[in-house]
Amino acid sequence: MKILYSLYALGRMEVVWGEDCLEFRPERWISEKGVITFDHADKFLVFNAGPRTCLGRDISFTQMKAVVASLLYNFEVEVIKDQVVSPKIAVILLTKNGLMVKVRERAVAAA
Question: Which GO terms describe its biological process (predicted)?
Answer without folding.
Answer: lipid metabolic process
